[in-house]
Design brief:
Elements: E1 6-10, H1 19-31, E2 41-46, E3 64-67, H2 77-89, H3 98-105, E4 110-113, E5 125-128, H4 133-136, H5 143-159, E6 162-165, H6 168-177, E7 185-187, H7 204-209, E8 217-220, H8 229-239, E9 248-251, H9 262-272, E10 279-283, H10 287-296, E11 300-302, H11 311-319, E12 323-326, H12 329-334, E13 339-342, H13 347-360, H14 367-399
Parallel strand pairs: 1-2, 1-4, 2-3, 4-5, 5-6, 6-7, 8-9, 9-10, 11-12, 12-13
Helix pairs in contact: 1-14, 8-13
C-alpha cells in the first residue's frame, strides 16, 4: 500500500503577524476535506522549548508534531583548516543542511517554507511569498529591510521547486524582480473558512457582550499603518456634523512592529477629533465573536492601502456579507460578490460611501446570502486543497524526478 505524502510546515510563532497562522489553518482545513487517499500527513515543525499552546488552533489538523534539531555548533580549528584545504584542492562539496538531513530521516517528502534555508537542503521545498508590500509602499520600510526582503525572497526562490503566490498582482511583482524564475511561480489564492457553529446563535448575543450598538460598520484589521485607519478617522470627522451617529467598530492586533507607537497615536488622534464614540476599538477578540460582528454589521470595511490577498475579503465571501473596499488591484481580483469600492486616498469619497450605507443598509445577517455562501464554500475549499496538492506533487517531482509520487 502506497504511503501518504508527509508534508512539513513550520510553526510561525510571531504574535505580531497573525496572517501566517490563519493561512496555515485555512490550508489545513482544505486539505482535510480531500479524499483520505489524497490527504497528506501534516507535520508541524516546532522549535525546542516551544509551547504547543501557541498553536492550539492548528491542533485538530496536525498528524504529528516534530521538534526541530538545534543548529550544529561552529566547526573547530581542525575542521576549518580541512575545509580550506579541500576548497584549495577543488574537492570540497557543500554539506547537506542539518535540517534537511533531519527531515529526510523523518521521511518528510516536502517542506513548506517562507524562509530561505541555504543550499544543498536535501528535501524538496515549496516556497511561499505572502506579498511584495515593500515594492508598493517603500516608505513603510527602511532601505536595509527592503534589501533584506529582496535577498531573502531571491534565495528562497533559488532553493525552492515552486513558489506559491496568492494573486496575479503578486505574480506581476514577482515577475518584475525575478524574471528568470517566473516558471517557478504558482498562483494559488487561499480560501477562508467559517466555522459552522456561528450560525447556531444570533449575533446580537455578541453585541450585548461587548455593549455595542446594533447598527455599526465593522473594520476587522490589524492596527498596522498601511491598513489605513487614519483615513477612516478623517471620513468620520467629515460626517460628524451631519451624521454623528455613524459608528465604526475596529478589532485586530494592536502591535505594529514597524511603527510600535501607531496604535497609541491612533487613539490620541481619535480623542483629538472627538470621535471616541464613533470609532470604537476592541483590540483582539475571539474569531467566533469576529464572525458574529461581521454578520450583524451594516457592512464590513476594508480600507487597506495594500494586500497580498485579503483575509477580510475572503471571510466575507465565505460568510455571505457585503464589503466596502479600497480600490486596489488585488481587491478587484478577489471579486467579492457584494463589494463596493472607494478611493483609499480620498476621505470625502469614503465619507460619502459610509453615509450611503448608513442610510440604506439593514443590520444583521441575510440568511439567503449566508446559505448561498455556505454552499459555495464547500466547492471552493475542495478546489483549494486539490490545487495545493497538485502543486506539492509537482514540486516533489521536480526536485526528485525518480520519485514515485503520483
Amino acid at each position: 500500500m502506497k504511503r501518504k505524502l508527509r508534508i512539513a510546515f513550520p510553526a510561525w510563532n510571531s504574535t505580531d503577524w497573525t496572517g501566517g497562522l490563519n493561512y496555515l489553518k485555512n490550508l489545513f482545513q482544505a486539505l482535510r476535506t480531500l479524499d483520505p487517499k489524497e490527504t497528506p500527513e501534516i507535520i508541524l515543525l516546532i522549535d525546542r522549548g516551544d509551547h504547543l499552546e501557541r498553536h492550539k488552533t492548528l491542533h485538530p489538523y496536525i498528524d504529528h508534531f516534530v521538534v526541530k534539531p538545534e543548529p550544529p555548533s561552529s566547526p573547530g580549528f581542525i575542521k576549518r583548516q580541512t575545509t580550506r584545504l579541500q576548497k584549495w584542492m577543488g574537492i570540497w562539496h557543500e554539506p547537506e543542511h542539518y535540517l534537511g538531513t533531519f527531515l529526510r530521516q523523518e521521511k518528510i517528502d516536502l517542506l513548506f517554507s517562507r524562509d530561505d534555508l541555504g543550499p544543498n537542503f536535501g528535501v524538496p521545498i515549496l516556497g511561499w511569498i505572502p506579498d511584495f508590500q515593500h515594492l508598493h509602499l517603500p516608505e513603510m520600510f527602511s532601505s536595509q529591510e527592503i534589501n533584506s526582503r529582496n535577498c531573502q525572497f531571491k534565495r528562497l526562490t533559488e532553493q525552492a521547486s515552486h513558489i506559491l503566490l496568492s494573486s496575479n498582482a503578486a505574480y506581476k511583482d514577482f515577475e518584475s524582480i525575478f524574471p528568470e524564475f517566473t516558471a517557478k511561480a504558482k498562483i494559488l489564492p487561499f480560501i477562508s473558512q467559517i466555522p459552522k457553529e456561528i450560525y447556531t446563535s444570533h449575533p446580537l448575543n455578541v453585541i450585548s457582550l461587548y455593549n455595542l450598538p446594533e447598527r455599526f460598520i465593522y473594520l476587522p484589521n490589524q492596527f498596522w499603518k498601511h491598513k489605513n485607519h487614519l483615513l477612516v478617522l478623517e471620513a468620520l470627522s467629515l460626517l460628524k456634523p451631519s451624521h454623528p451617529e455613524v459608528s465604526v467598530i475596529c478589532t485586530g492586533n494592536t502591535a505594529d512592529y514597524r511603527h510600535p507607537l501607531f496604535f497609541s497615536e491612533l487613539l490620541i488622534e481619535t480623542s483629538k477629533r472627538g470621535l471616541r464614540e464613533q470609532m470604537i476599538f476592541l483590540g483582539m477578540i475571539p474569531h467566533y465573536d469576529l464572525y458574529q460582528l461581521m454578520r450583524q454589521s451594516l457592512t464590513v470595511l476594508q480600507p487597506s492601502l495594500f494586500e497580498g490577498w485579503s483575509t477580510v475579503v475572503e471571510e466575507v465571501k465565505s460568510l455571505g456579507k457585503s464589503i466596502l473596499l479600497s480600490d486596489i488591484p488585488v481587491h478587484h481580483e478577489q471579486n467579492a460578490p457584494l463589494a463596493t469600492y472607494f478611493n483609499p486616498c480620498d476621505a470625502i469619497d469614503l465619507a460619502e460611501h459610509l453615509q450611503s450605507i448608513w442610510e440604506t443598509a439593514i443590520p444583521g445577517p441575510n440568511l439567503l446570502l449566508e446559505a448561498e455562501a455556505r454552499a459555495n464554500l464547500e466547492k471552493r475549499t475542495a478546489a483549494f486543497g486539490q490545487a495545493f496538492m497538485g502543486i506539492a506533487r509537482e514540486a516533489i517531482k521536480l526536485a526528485n524526478p525518480k520519485s514515485n509520487v503520483q
